Amino acid sequence: MPVKLVVFDWDGTLMDSTGTISRCIRQSCQEAGLPDPGASIANYVIGLGLHDALRHAAPGASETQVARLVDRYRHYYRMWGDQLVLFDDARPVITQLEQEGYLLAVATGKSRLGLATAFDQTGIGVHFLTSRCADECNPKPHPQMLHEIMEELGVSAEETVMIGDTTHDINMAKAAGSLSIGVTTGAHPVDSLRKAEPDHIAPSLADMLPWLKSA
Questions:
Q1: Is 196 within 8 Å of 212 (Cβ atoms)?
Q2: Which of 13, 49, 162, 199 could form a disulfide with 134 if both were Cys (CB 3.0 to 4.6 A apart)?
Q3: 12 and 46 in contact (C-beta within 8 Å)?
């Protein structure tokens, strides 16, 4: 079946935010007196729900320490987040797909407040028919976000593609039975994306368009 619904991840896919998020995670761990997880682990957890991400970045942390990490992460993200911008091709790609009749949605590890802030900051939220966030659903790679989006918009899994920069996105798509595209613009290296076996891998959003239109 031809693709009707295109679901985007946010961080590292539409927004160039991987470096800032990784920095926030590492700084939060250091301030909480926990070991610096390093860039590799900090990047790996991006896309998970915030609490799950920080638990993975700081294994063995108590719930009190996790709560402290969440507080510090939000502090640093508020401080540095205003500097974040969309990838250069994000707005043109979204606009083109909407004009061509695709249904557009977002499935993200951000909170609802975080996504609403990002929509306000970038102005592209008006292009998406619906969205799901990690504080409303089971976080990635659980398929609940995609299941709810597909049900709301009346589209089958075979007509849906998930686009993201992490293996969490690809594994969520596989669990939901939908197609997936990995973009190499964000948190997970291309070798990791290949191992997750998406239907396609592209170096950017613009570069995935030919495959999407032929799917």
A1: no
A2: 49
A3: yes
CA angle 120, 123, 125 (to 5 degrees): 85
Token pair recorded at residue 25: 């995670």
Domains and CATH numbers, the chain: 5-16+85-214 (3.40.50.1000), 18-83 (1.10.150)
Look up the pTM and report it: 0.94
CA-based radius of gyration for the chain: 16
* Bridge partners, 162 (sequence order): 7, 180
Let me know the angle formed at the C-alpha of 103 by 122 and 53, rounded to the nearest 5 degrees: 55
CA dist 56 and 41 (Å) reads: 8
Q: Which two tokens stand for residue 119?
A: 């929509």
Do you know the residue count of the chain? 215
Say if residue 145's pLDDT is above 80. yes
Mapped onto helix, strand or coil, the DSSP state of residue 16 is coil
**Distance between CA 98 and CA 45 in Å, rounded?**
30
pLDDT value, residue 197: 98
- Please give the pLDDT value at position 83: 83
Of 166, 215, 210, give the one whose Cα is nearest residue 186: 166
